[in-house]
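Work package 3, deliverable 3.1, input record:
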Amino acid sequence: MGIAERRAREKEELRSKILEAAGQLFVEQGFQNVSLRKIADRIEYSPATIYLYFRDKAELLNTLCGETFSQLLAALLELEKADADPLSKLRAGLRFYIDFGLQHPNHYLLTFCTPHHHCRQLEKTPEFEQTNRTALETFDCLRRSLQHCRQVGLLEFEDLELTAQTVWMFIHGTVSLLILNSGDPHFPWCEKEQLIENSLDLVLASLKCGARTGTTKQQHPVAHW
Amino acid sequence: MGIAERRAREKEELRSKILEAAGQLFVEQGFQNVSLRKIADRIEYSPATIYLYFRDKAELLNTLCGETFSQLLAALLELEKADADPLSKLRAGLRFYIDFGLQHPNHYLLTFCTPHHHCRQLEKTPEFEQTNRTALETFDCLRRSLQHCRQVGLLEFEDLELTAQTVWMFIHGTVSLLILNSGDPHFPWCEKEQLIENSLDLVLASLKCGARTGTTKQQHPVAHW
Amino acid sequence: MGIAERRAREKEELRSKILEAAGQLFVEQGFQNVSLRKIADRIEYSPATIYLYFRDKAELLNTLCGETFSQLLAALLELEKADADPLSKLRAGLRFYIDFGLQHPNHYLLTFCTPHHHCRQLEKTPEFEQTNRTALETFDCLRRSLQHCRQVGLLEFEDLELTAQTVWMFIHGTVSLLILNSGDPHFPWCEKEQLIENSLDLVLASLKCGARTGTTKQQHPVAHW
Amino acid sequence: MGIAERRAREKEELRSKILEAAGQLFVEQGFQNVSLRKIADRIEYSPATIYLYFRDKAELLNTLCGETFSQLLAALLELEKADADPLSKLRAGLRFYIDFGLQHPNHYLLTFCTPHHHCRQLEKTPEFEQTNRTALETFDCLRRSLQHCRQVGLLEFEDLELTAQTVWMFIHGTVSLLILNSGDPHFPWCEKEQLIENSLDLVLASLKCGARTGTTKQQHPVAHW
DNA sequence: TATGAATGAGACTTCATTCAT
DNA sequence: GATGAATGAAGTCTCATTCAT
């Protein structure tokens, strides 16, 4: 009994070690430059061992993304239950999303900033379906939160879906640039905390005023390249 | 003299050919799938020839991005001269930036969505310096444009630098997600044009209302992972 | 006592299961594509278990071939007992050999069409000795059958051993080409049944006429390559 | 001029070296067990170098077979011109075929005794088409030779195609067993030269007597396994 | 007895890069 | 200036085999 338990525990630990090593290497060396061999080297196991835990490289990556989403979703669902006004909760959720990305830069880049050309073949696997469902649920949190704010009159907007997607794009822009360029000495970056809070301020402000009010769509020259 | 001139001209032409072929291939096949051999094949030269023009692959890529963003800068500077109100010109500039990204998705991803681990060794090369200067100048366009709008009372904000960086982050979020996920069938994306225009609307709205007005910074739980 | 017996029986059953699964897989997937893991998967045991029954892959294969050819021998011995004239029985035996090969193409290929480089180490094992004895006995059937035919005047030939070996070579040629190329669309193969019967006709005809009669050994140019 | 020539010569030499090494290794280690690495090691070149001469392993094998056929065909066509009676020429051709196989055992096994599962993808390449055409032409030599013998009354048979294919099967049986088992100490093989000549004697005898004469197709028990 | 876990070796293949010519 | 030839390193992945439990 104890033996079986210990085995299961050890197996789970190695699995985690693989995922952790993979995540670290992605940050250190860039996603494309990490091979299964390097991951195996880092944890001092044979490359073949990895195949005992993940069918192939694609599944390893997918798992990495999936785990990230699960954690994020769980935390966001927790935040929803908080006893606070909808706007505060919206802001807290967005802030949480940003912090989460900054604390898991490798997973974030992997999930949102990397072309997933390998997904074609994964689309039918149950793991992928699961990851996908989690992602959609996560986005649902944002929809709900915005909807709440509108219902109680704290925010104004017409199209919920369009608004939610735009808000996500903005916040994603903040997270991804902070991850990628925070250490770049060639650009006079403002202080990180300031950038985050200002992002949240602007996003919420844009929805408070009623975005469309007085805004005229301008004619713009089309870029031909 | 004529001979030397012709030689110099030919040399420059081949250099351009290489860059052009590389750029095309990036668009066609995606960044990761382009090898020097493929570039060489397309222009019907030997792979070794490329090394007469670029020290290594990194330098080739860096040059390519640099040249691409020179085009962006040139176009944005052109837009500045237009005879229009500052707000329209700001909006046109942002729109142009988005379109540019969508039309050069691979260059955009390479420049803004990829960790640049290879830059260490490039930092001292004159090509890199040049690229960097271009990037800073491009960002200056945004600063100037925002400043104009504030001066004439069309927009309100306190910190110019902070605002410019935040605006860029938002717009970058729009571009990068549109590039990466526009074809993703697993997410109910809104129509691309709608997303772009809504992004511009919201960004400008946030600056019109005076972002800080009435916004209270919320206490938020810190994420521990 | 009962326990020991049951255990021995169970052990023998698992051994049979392994051999059976291996045989099936060879037919289904071709010889080269069968790994120990696939065999283990099919019987729902661990790959390691196979090593409790067979020293290594080579021994497994050897045993498999040995058992298969035991079946051939048994059937041929049965045919011998039939109440028919010797020539009919010779023909029936050869026909049986051909059919057997076509029904066990992978075993046949493995045994007769594949260089046995691994035999060196196997030569001393009792399993190999057994296999070998079976093969020799099988060939003895052919010798006996030919001898019978000669004794009763149905066939004419001088050297029994030489004749038997030649007949086997011919029939082997028929079997092996039918196995390897029967599905080849690039060659205008005659109908399989025709080829088999014609082979038998020609073989027997050659022995009826007295092969040497009137045949002059021709001078032939030696091939130098 | 001299330089280009030398280069071309050197390139051709290396190509030959690769093919030669591959052929040797097939004999020594068995076809399935030869990897590109081993071939590269033997000629003391890098594995990658082989890819400069052959697209992949399949093309290397195909070339090997193709070259063999070409040599065989050329020699057989030469034999056809000889001034001799058709029967002698037929026998000489068959003998030549046997000798050729014994002198190129690796090529022979590769071409005629190995399942060509990899050909599916090759079928459309011009190299494969060429190899195939050569093979068909080679078989045509046999057809013509048999036809000549029949025309001048030296041999009797009904169906030319059926007869040619059967003769080939017989001769192939002789060649392939001699190649594979000539060194087998477990079987009391007759002397090689005797086996060859006896094969030729029997084949020709079977066609002289008129195979069908007096041969009754026997009822035979069907093998059920 | 049976096996889960692990691995060394090796499979085919591609790539960025170098160098003699 | 241009390149044909060559390669070391690395890529993903499979396999027969071992061993502690």
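Chains C and B do not touch (no CB pair under 8 Å).
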